[in-house]
Amino acid sequence: MTITITAFERSPDGGKGLARDTRVRWALEEVGQPYEVRLVSFPAMKQPAHLALHPFGQIPTYEDGEFALFETGAIVLHLAERHTGLLPDEAKARARAITWIFAALNTVEPPILELVTVRIFEGDKPWSKERLPLVQDRVRDRLVQLSARLGNAADWLDGAFSAGDLMMVSVLLRLRPSGILDEFPTVAAYVARGEARPAYKRAFAAQLAVFNGKPPTG
Ligand code: GTB
After folding, report:
1. Residues 182 and 203 both lie in one domain
2. Does 22 sit in the ligand 1 pocket, CB within 6 Å?
C-alpha cells in the first residue's frame, strides 16, 4: 500500500519547513519509505472528508490503505516502531528514545508555541511587549536544560540518532525565526546536525518544492 500524508497546499511559512508535515516526511525518509502527498487548502481541512481523518481539521495526516493516523507524535512513533533506523532494538534504550519524543512534544514544544503565539499572533496586542520577555525566558529555561543534557560531547540525546532527536530537532527549528536558538551554541549545533542528515535534506527539499510549485520527482 502506498503511504499518503497530507500537507498545506500553500504553507504559511513560505517553504521554510516549519509546518508539521516536515517531521513526518523526515521520518519517512529516515526509514526509507516512499510516500505520496495530498495537498489540502485551509477550507478543505475543515470539510467532512478531511475531518474524518483528522478530527481537529489539521495537517498532517497519515494513511496506509484503510489505516489512518493523525498527530505527528503518533505518526513518527508508528513509523519508528515498524521500520529500522529510528529506535534502538534494546528495550530500555528504546523506551528512553520514546521518552524523548514525548519530552519534545510535551515539555519543550509548549513554551516554543507560546512564544510563536506572542510574537506572531498576539504581536499587535497592547500587552504583548510586556509578556514577550516572560515567554522568552520560559523557552530559555528549556534550552539551558537541553544544553546541559547534550554537554560538550554528545551528538544526540541518548546514544545514536533516534526518533526522539528527530522530534526534538523539529520542535527546536520552530525557534529559528526568533533568534533565541543562536544564544545556545550547543543546542544550535545539535539542530544543525539534524538538518545536515540526508533524510532531513530530502524532506526539506520536498516540502519546498510544493511551495515553489514544482512537482516532486523520483
Ligand atoms: N498536535 C498536532 C500534530 O503534532 O500533528 C498539531 C498539528 C498542527 O498544528 N497542524 C497545523 C495546522 O494544520 C499545521 S503545522 N494548522 C491549521 C489549522 O489548525 O487550521 C503548525 C504550523 C503552522 C504554520 C507554520 N508556519 O507558518 O510557520 C508552522 C507550523
Report:
1. no
2. no
- On whether the CB atoms of residues 112 and 137 are closer than 8 A, the answer is no
133 and 105 within one domain: yes
Judgement on whether residues 123 and 37 belong to the same structural domain of the protein: no
pLDDT in tens, 75-129: 999 999 999 999 999 999 999 999 999 999 999 999 999 999 999 899 899 899 9
59 lines ligand 1 (CB under 6 A): yes
168: CATH: 1.20.1050.10
70 contacts 61 by C-beta, under 8 angstroms: yes
DSSP at 122: S
Question: Which atom, in ligand 1's list, is nearest to the CA of 42?
Answer: 20
19 contacts: CB under 8 Å, gap ≥ 6 = 7, 8, 11, 12, 13, 59, 207
Give the DSSP H or E segment for 62.
strand 61-64
* Domain assignment of residue 126, given as a range: 91-197
Q: Please measure the distance between the N-terminal and C-terminal CA atoms of the chain and give it in whole angstroms.
A: 18
Domain assignment of residue 81, yes or no: yes
**Same domain, yes or no, for 48 and 101?**
no
C-alpha cell belonging to residue 92? 530500555
| Ligand 1 near 20 CB (within 6 A) | yes
The three three-digit cell numbers of residue 216, written as one number: 516532486
